[in-house]
Every structure is written in C-alpha cells, then in structure tokens.
Write a structure and sequence with these properties.
Layout (H helix, E strand, L loop, with lengths): L38 E6 L2 H9 L21 E5 H10 L20 H6 L27
Antiparallel strand pairs: 1-2
Length: 144
C-alpha cells in the first residue's frame, strides 16, 4: 500500500490525536472503500459549524462512547465527511481546513481553490486561538 497523499500532493500528516480522529481512528484522514462517508477533510471545529451540523442531523457534540466518539468542541480538529464540508461551504459556514492533513481523495468532490480559501493558520486550534469558544452548542430537539 502506498503512502496516502494530501491535497497539496505531499504526505498526509496527522489531523488530530486529541480527540483521536479518522475513519480508522488513527489520527489521520485516511480512507478506503469501506469509508462510505469519505472522512477526508481535516477541519477545525467552530461553534457555527457544530450548530450547523446538529441542525443538519449530524450531532458531533454529544459523546458516543459506544463508537469511541468523544463529542467535539470548538477548537478541535476532526476528519469530516467531505460532502458535509461541501454542504457547509455552500451554506457559507464551512470550517477551516488543515490542508496537509486533508486526504487527496477530497478533491474528487471539492475544488482545491475552495479548500485553500478555508486553510487554517498554523496556530489554529490552539487554546489561545479558540479561547473565545468556551461553551458547547446545545443540540435543540426541535431542530430534528
């Protein structure tokens, strides 16, 4: 098996190990034919995106230990399904992405220019950079 590549053509780097992300829970946005959702976009979670995701029926906030899912908060990096990122992009609330950690297969669905326009800065995700996001979005049962 060859080494996975990112959208810039280099080696795929780790997206996050805390929380541990990826379809294979290896910290990387690796994918294969079993990954129906194509968890290929390394995205920086924001309150706006997490609320959008809950509204769209994908609660990324609530921990689900049975799936080894800790629940996400603003400032976390997570391997998103590429079509969820595209949906958020079209709605004007796409989260920033870590290009070096976004799998090249994402380019089957989204344009590199759009990903680059949402590139996360080097300090993105640090507690200092995300300090203003101290509260979690609360899923509203009426949204479903």
């Amino acid at each position: 098996m060859s080494q996975a590549k990112n959208v810039l053509g280099g080696p795929l780097v780790t997206c996050s190990t805390d929380p541990l992300t990826g379809f294979f829970r290896d910290g990387c946005c690796n994918t294969d034919d079993n990954d129906v959702g194509q968890h290929t976009v390394c995205a920086l979670m924001t309150r706006e995106f997490l609320e959008f995701s809950v509204i769209r029926g994908n609660d990324l906030v609530t921990p689900r230990p049975e799936w080894n899912f800790p629940g996400l908060k603003p400032g976390d990096f997570w391997c998103l399904c590429v079509l969820r990122w595209l949906e958020a992009f079209k709605a004007g609330c796409a989260p920033q992405v870590r290009l070096e950690a976004t799998h090249e297969d994402a380019l089957k669905y989204v344009r590199l220019e759009d990903l680059k326009a949402h590139a996360a800065s080097a300090e993105a995700g640090s507690s200092d950079a995300m300090g203003k996001f101290n509260t979690l979005p609360t899923p509203n049962p009426e949204w479903n």
